[in-house]
Amino acid sequence: FTEGKAVWRIVDSPRDAPAVIIERMSNRSGGHGIEIRHESKRTLIVSSTIGFDVDGRGYGDIFLDDHCGRLNLNRPGQSAWCRQLNTEHNGTMCRNNGGKLWILGMKTEKIGTIIETVNGGITDAAGIFVYSNAGWREGLPAFLIENSAVTLCGVNERNFNRQPVSLWVRETQGSETREMKDRPWVYLSQLLRQGF
Questions:
Q1: Phi and psi dihedrals of 47, rounded to 5?
Q2: What are phi and psi of 36, to 5 degrees?
Q3: How is residue 190 annotated by DSSP?
Q4: pTM tops 0.85
């Protein structure tokens, strides 16, 4: 049941095409988007869209191209490839729960964890622009890593209200937690440095 918002469910049936393509569609940016819930083993391709939140709950791959909205990989083992991901939401903007996530070009606005990678997830993100125009909340990590592997490269920020990001990375591996307050141009999670 989806009270208060529209949800498009991508599910399997006996005579399905191998891929579902959603392209050139627009909804309201930054508000309550339409959720595309991927519960299928088929490939989902979302291109040139605004105001859609993609929720991965299936086994099929996800490809996002020129997408304005959230991405949540909720099924461990699911993979997503993103080019030009633009998230303009408060709260967690992109979640990887045990999946494999690749991002080339990401811009964010508003306040919240930019990428959360947990449960053995693997995230590789290059070219991340953080526009912290609303001011950053003290103690809120821009990148949250828990028992996962993350590579970040080309992280940059613009802030005009003198409240920039104050905690860039919070990484927990096992019982050890580390925090990085300085903006990393390149960041390799501890798991990668140790060679998993």
A1: -135, 140
A2: -100, 105
A3: H
A4: yes
The first and second tokens of residue 140, run together, are 């809120």
Q: What are the pLDDT digits (tens) for 43-81?
A: 999 999 998 999 999 999 999 999 999 999 999 999 999
**Both tokens assigned to 33:** 């988007």
Q: Which residue has 């798991």 as its token pair?
A: 191
Dihedral sign from CA coordinates of 71, 100, 180, 130: negative
- CA-wise closest residue to 70 among 48, 49, 55: 55
Tokens 């990375």 appear where? 169
Report the 10 Å Cβ neighbour count for 180: 15
Main-chain phi, psi angles of 192, to 5 degrees: -70, -35
Task: Please give the Cα distance from 22 to 76 (Å, whole number).
Answer: 23
The HSE-up count of residue 44 (CA atoms within 13 Å, CB side) is 28
